[in-house]
């Protein structure tokens, strides 16, 4: 049986060798397994970083509309590549930094958002909406700042046009933030 350090290295190797999309899906799967209790009672204490991110997310949610698009922004759908098949009339913009799957579920349960649309008015033929984000999730931000970038302690970081500055919230206590 492997020791914890070996398991950690193997886990990090798996995460390092997959695309961002697959990594995100894999980590969501792990989270769901833990939350479902399928692997027993796996609990973890929230770090100060997690508490700070959740506080920032909560504050931003209270200031922005549910889709997190301000009246001064224009969201443009991709014309080529990933998500080029999105139909603007059936695609919902959801900010991944502000709303994870659990938060979206809560919005749907509260009637503030729907996951489906009616293909014919009045019928029961419904199709799922397409969800798209133009932001990194909190987990992706934490990964980028803790593993993908070098140590930014004592550095100045200039954030130009990243919408709600999610990247800076992920690790802002170790470097000076400047945004426009």
Structure commentary:
This protein has 180 residues and is α/β, with parallel strands linked by helices. It has a domain at 1-38. 39% of the residues lie in helices and 11% in strands. It has helices at residues 4-16, 20-36, 48-63, 101-109, 138-148, 166-169, and strands spanning 91-93, 116-118, 126-128, 130-132, 156-159, 176-179. The strands form 3 sheets. A two-stranded parallel sheet has the order 1-4. The chain has a two-stranded antiparallel sheet with strand order 2-3. Strands 5-6 form a two-stranded parallel ribbon. It is globular, with a radius of gyration of 19 Å. The mean pLDDT is 76.
- SS content category: alpha/beta
- How far is it from the N-terminal to the C-terminal residue, by CA? 52 Å
Taken in chain order, the helices and strands follow as HHHEHEEEHEHE
Rg over CA atoms, rounded to whole Å, is 19 Å
Helix tally equals 6
Proportion of helical residues: 25-40%
Major sheet attributes: 2 strands, parallel
Any low-confidence stretches, pLDDT <50, length ≥5?
none
What is the 3D shape?
globular
Give the topology.
Elements: H1 4-16, H2 20-36, H3 48-63, E1 91-93, H4 101-109, E2 116-118, E3 126-128, E4 130-132, H5 138-148, E5 156-159, H6 166-169, E6 176-179
Parallel strand pairs: 1-4, 5-6
Antiparallel strand pairs: 2-3
């Amino acid at each position: 049986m492997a020791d914890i350090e070996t398991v950690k290295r193997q886990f990090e190797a798996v995460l390092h060798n997959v695309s961002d999309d697959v990594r995100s899906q894999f980590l969501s799967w792990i989270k769901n397994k833990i939350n479902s209790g399928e692997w027993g009672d796996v609990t973890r204490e929230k770090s100060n970083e997690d508490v700070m991110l959740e506080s920032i997310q909560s504050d931003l949610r209270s200031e922005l509309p549910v889709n997190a698009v301000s009246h001064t922004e224009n969201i443009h759908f991709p014309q080529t590549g990933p998500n080029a098949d999105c139909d603007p009339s059936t695609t919902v913009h959801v900010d991944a930094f502000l709303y994870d799957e659990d938060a979206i579920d809560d919005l749907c349960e509260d009637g503030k958002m729907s996951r489906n649309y009616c293909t014919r008015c009045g019928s029961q033929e419904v199709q799922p909406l397409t969800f798209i984000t133009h932001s990194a999730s909190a987990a992706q931000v934490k990964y980028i700042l803790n593993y993908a970038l070098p140590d930014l302690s004592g550095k100045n970081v200039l954030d130009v046009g990243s919408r709600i500055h999610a990247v800076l919230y992920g690790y802002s206590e170790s470097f000076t933030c400047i945004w426009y």
